[in-house]
Specification:
The complex is a heterodimer of chains A (208) and B (335). Chain A is mainly α. Chain A is 67% helix and 0% strand. In chain B, helix 1 (3-18) crosses helix 3 and helix 2 (24-36) crosses helix 3 (38-51). Chain B has a five-stranded antiparallel β-sheet with strand order 4-3-2-1-5, covered by helices on one side. Chain B starts with a helix and ends with a strand. Chain B is built from eight helices and five strands. Chain B is mainly alpha-helical and 335 residues long. Helices cover 39% and strands 6% of the residues of chain B. The chains are: A mainly alpha (208), B mainly alpha (335).
């Protein structure tokens, strides 16, 4: 028997199948929790946001557009709530004034520079697994919210660009520009954290 | 199209390929191009090396209870609310455009009267409900801290957070009658905040403890301990004793509501076998976090390994602040 799609389950739920929404909850809790955890870096927020997101999805199920896909819709709800949480915590989501990226997406230099830089790992200190995890987590956490959100959706959850655009509420071009900027900033910060040889430092510096 | 633009397009294509954004046909095309063009393959390799560290950012799985919590909240929603369209809830009375209020003014008055009546009946029970809800919030705190402990141990070869070298030479009791230096056990717990394994300062504050107050500084990492004892209402395993690691007995209590023997930083000669933490209603029970990461409410302080008491070291009854657990399975939770 074929596994029902998310959209079929939601439709079944709306027509009165009692366990259909529960199946959706069981299917998506793990991934949704991982997304919010990486986005907010707080397990407490992840617990709360996941609950709130499913509750809102449940209450709004009758307004779901059957022409759309359920997963981006659910992530849109969770992302909104996670952004609210970050705002309530005083996190800044604005891009600093010296960021080499504009909101419309022209970040060609950033990405091109990144790709033409010196051998990225040259001189880098090998890190223990635990230390590397800590360093990477801190760098991702330090990215502006708008960059981190797109990076997490694209890299860890493999959302298509148009789906990320739907979740974040910006054009596809902006999604790409934010992603390129996020990768550039991450690479720069990571190289700084693990150490690079003098000759490479100037190249790395151009990436961000 | 300039060479630079063409190069940028190719780079973008490589990134799309790495992120699984291409169709199968497009992906095959990229693979073919990489095979034929060594410099392109080199750029692809460079990109892989850039992205690879991101894989180190692993996350802990959600707590086991999360799905049940979501389903409980949905069930509660079904019980609490009439199933009506949201648009109807937002509208007022009949506006002549087909929308109509769910309740008329008269129905609202009747509802208010009923609610008042029900409240009068329920008020005596509300205190208990509030106490119960604070107990649950307190257990949630410990669970969150437990997740932080697991993450810390995962990054530190199963070691538990501790500043043991200082504790071994000093006293962990603030008002101890000894000349030894004060080396609070709470420094170990504070590592979780300082190193951001636990992100919220209020996770260390039991909601039932009236005098407790969350640490309210923007730079928790600049401190080495909770600046005020009121910033942490939980006590944890005395790490100055025999080495305890995450791989030690999974049912070893690691942290709990404050030990009543050492309340206020002083020793109180009370019976540890019959005393509960005073965090909850003066001593009705305590939440306990175990090494396997689960937290539970208990009214019995003898809930350690094989019925071990969590407040005392071995069976000692008097303390000077230098006592330690007698063996790795002896829970001895201290400030």
């Amino acid at each position: 028997m074929q596994t029902p799609t998310d959209e079929q389950l939601l439709s079944d739920h709306l027509t009165g199948r009692t366990d259909a929404f529960e199946l959706l909850v069981r299917r998506h809790t793990d991934e949704l929790h991982r997304f919010v955890l990486r986005f907010t870096n707080s397990s407490a927020a992840a617990d709360d946001v996941v609950q709130e997101a499913f509750l809102q999805a449940y209450l709004s199920a009758d307004r779901f557009d059957p022409g759309r896909r359920f997963r981006p819709w659910l992530f849109t709800i969770a992302a909104n709530k996670a952004r609210d949480w970050l705002r309530s915590r005083g996190r800044k989501s604005e891009v600093p004034l010296d960021a080499k990226v504009d909101s419309d997406g022209d970040v060609g230099k950033t990405f091109a520079d990144l790709m033409t830089g010196a051998e990225v790992e040259a001189g880098a200190v090998e890190l223990q697994a635990g230390e590397q995890r800590r360093v990477v987590r801190r760098i991702v956490e330090s990215l502006p919210d708008m960059f981190r959100e797109v990076l997490v959706l694209a890299y860890y959850h493999r959302f298509a660009y148009r789906e990320i655009a739907e979740v974040v509420g910006v054009p596809v071009g902006t999604v790409k520009s934010r992603l390129h900027a996020a990768i550039g900033r991450f690479a720069t910060a990571y190289q700084e954290a693990v150490g690079v040889e003098d000759g490479d430092e100037a190249e790395v510096g151009r990436w961000s | 199209m300039s060479d630079k633009q063409r190069q940028f397009d190719m780079d973008e294509w490589l990134l799309d390929s790495q992120l699984g954004q291409l169709t199968d046909a497009q992906h095959r095309e990229v693979m073919e191009a990489l095979r034929k063009n060594p410099s392109l393959a080199e750029r692809d390799h460079r990109l892989q090396r850039l992205l690879q560290p991101l894989d180190a950012f692993t996350t802990t799985p959600p707590p086991n209870y999360l799905v049940d919590k979501v389903l409980d909240r949905i069930a509660a929603q079904n019980e609490d609310l009439p199933v009506v369209p949201e648009s109807a809830l937002m509208s007022g009375d009949d506006y002549g455009d087909g929308r109509r209020s769910v309740f008329s003014f008269r129905e609202m008055l009747a509802l208010a009267a009923m609610l008042t009546f029900v409240m009068l009946i329920l008020v005596p029970g509300l205190a208990n409900v509030r106490a119960k809800s604070r107990q649950i919030a307190c257990a949630d705190n410990l669970h969150r801290i437990g997740q932080g402990v697991l993450a810390y141990a995962a990054d530190n070869t199963n070691a538990l957070p501790a500043v043991a070298s200082a504790a071994r030479e000093g006293t962990w009791l603030r008002d101890a009658k000894t000349t030894k230096p004060y080396a609070p056990n709470s420094r170990g717990r504070y590592l979780l905040l300082r190193l951001r394994y636990v992100n919220q300062c209020d996770s260390f504050v039991c909601p039932s403890h009236g005098d407790a107050k969350p640490l309210a500084v923007p730079n928790a990492h600049a401190f080495s301990d909770f600046p005020d004892p009121a910033n942490c209402s939980y006590d944890s395993q005395n790490m100055a004793g025999p080495s305890v690691r995450l791989t030690s007995s999974s049912d070893l209590p690691y942290m709990a509501d404050a030990n009543p023997l050492f309340e206020g930083g002083k020793f109180h000669a009370i019976d540890p076998l019959r005393s509960n933490s005073r965090n909850h209603n003066g001593g009705v029970g305590q939440n306990v976090l175990f090494l396997d990461g689960h937290a539970r409410w208990t009214q019995d302080p003898n809930c350690g390994v094989r019925g071990d008491n969590i407040w005392q070291a071995g069976s000692l009854r008097h303390y000077r602040g230098t006592e330690k657990p007698t063996c790795p399975e002896d829970a001895f939770l201290v400030p």
